[in-house]
Each structure stands twice: as structure tokens, then as C-alpha cells.
Specification:
single chain, about 220 residues, alpha+beta, Ribosomal Protein L22, Chain A, 4-stranded mixed sheet, 3-stranded antiparallel sheet, 7 helices, about 30% strand
Length: about 220
């Protein structure tokens, strides 16, 4: 069964909530969080693991990981359960599934047009160019980007997979994946509503027909 949740992180997190958050994650994640220069980055890192604990029903600080090729983490004590975490802007998102899964969230902000030319397949560039106005074009860019990232993370190949080697098709019936040559890929992908300032996508070899994102505040996550 697939599970998906998100936590919204405020701009400023006070000392009390920060210490409570670090106290509830694994020593490995706590050490990683404390290396960040900025507190918000540390909070995102720790909140990702606490969100994963919530989805798994795990006790605080009990998760342990090993790392596969390209650095993809695998849960040691939950065989047959795959997970993925992403954060950007105000949100941290986490997905768990019985098959490899990738999830990505992106804050919508201005972007250099040359990035699409360098990273998007021809079909994706045509989809961008068909946007009537700049806000729509920008939204489409991040929908494509989050979808592509979720696929790369699900496959587990990291940045060794050229972004132009595959394309995301977005239509009235949703999104799909294909090779740059137009052949269908056996992966399911969904664009998910979060808010106007963020784009989000999830990808796996199989996805349920209806996917709901459980969105929490940091206080709700800490109180769980």
C-alpha cells in the first residue's frame, strides 16, 4: 500500500521545536542535520525522517539505513518497503511503497529559459512553448521538472540518467513517460496538487488510482 505525506516548514523554527525534532530522529540523521549551516536546511532533513517514521508507524529514532548504488537509501528493518524523501521551498514530502518509488517537490520560482533547452526533450519543450502566458509556462516547467526528478529517483540511477533521454507527456488524462524516441515506458507518474507555489510528482511502476497527500504542519508532525 502506498503512503504519501508532506509537512510544511515555517520560515523560522524556534529552539524548542528544533531540539524536539532532533531528539526524535536517528543519530545518523541528527548528525547530518547538525552539519548544515542554516537551521531551515537542518529542519528539513530531520523532518523528512520524522515524516517517514510516521508513515511506517516506527518508534522515534529507530530507523536505520544502508545505501545502494548512487547513494539511494534502503530501510534495513522494513524489507519490501521502499521510500523516497524530497524537500524544496516550504515543504518536505515523503512516499512509501511496496515497489521502488520516487517523489519530488519543487518551489516555483523564476528560471533561466536555457535550462529547459539543455535538459528537456523535444516534446517537453513544445509543451512549454504552447503555454499562452509566462505564469503558465513557469508552472509547466516545474511540473515537468518534478515529474522527471521523481522518475529518476524511482529508477535509482541518479544523475547518471540524461534528462533528455526520456520525456514526460502531460495531457488531459494526466502524465505519462516515454523515451526520447516516443516509446512508452512502464512507469506510472502523477502530478499532485500541493499549492500554487509548489509542483509535486510521484512515480513508481504501479500507483493506486487515487492518491491523497496528507499535509501536516510541523507542530502536527511533532505532536504525532
Amino acid at each position: 500500500m502506498m503512503k504519501l505525506a508532506a509537512v510544511r516548514i515555517e520560515e523560522t523554527v524556534d529552539d524548542s521545536r528544533y531540539e524536539r525534532l532532533l531528539a526524535r530522529v536517528s543519530a545518523e540523521r541528527r548528525t547530518k542535520a547538525e552539519r548544515f549551516r542554516f537551521r531551515r536546511d537542518a529542519v528539513r532533513t530531520a523532518a523528512g525522517e520524522l515524516l517517514l517514521q510516521r508513515l511506517l508507524g516506527a518508534a522515534d529514532g529507530t530507523l536505520s539505513f544502508r545505501y545502494l548504488s548512487h547513494g539511494k537509501p534502503e530501510l534495513i528493518d522494513y524489507p519490501g518497503t521502499w521510500h523516497n524523501i524530497s524537500h524544496s521551498g516550504e515543504y518536505v514530502v515523503c512516499a512509501c511503497h511496496e515497489v521502488p518509488v520516487g517523489v519530488d517537490v519543487e518551489a516555483v520560482r523564476p528560471v533561466d529559459d536555457d535550462l529547459a533547452k539543455r535538459c528537456f526533450a523535444d516534446a517537453e519543450q513544445m509543451y512549454l512553448q504552447a503555454a499562452a502566458e509566462e505564469p503558465q509556462r513557469l508552472r509547466r516547467f516545474y511540473e515537468l521538472w518534478s515529474a522527471k526528478e521523481s522518475y529518476i529517483k524511482a529508477v535509482g540511477d541518479g544523475l547518471s540518467m540524461p534528462l533528455q533521454s526520456f520525456a514526460v507527456r502531460i495531457g488531459m488524462d494526466g502524465a505519462s513517460l516515454e523515451t526520447a524516441a516516443g516509446e512508452s515506458l512502464p512507469w506510472a507518474i502523477r502530478l499532485l496538487p500541493l499549492d500554487a507555489g509548489h509542483a509535486m510528482a510521484v512515480c513508481a511502476s504501479q500507483l493506486p488510482p487515487d492518491i491523497a497527500v496528507d499535509v501536516l504542519s510541523l507542530d502536527e508532525l511533532l505532536g504525532s
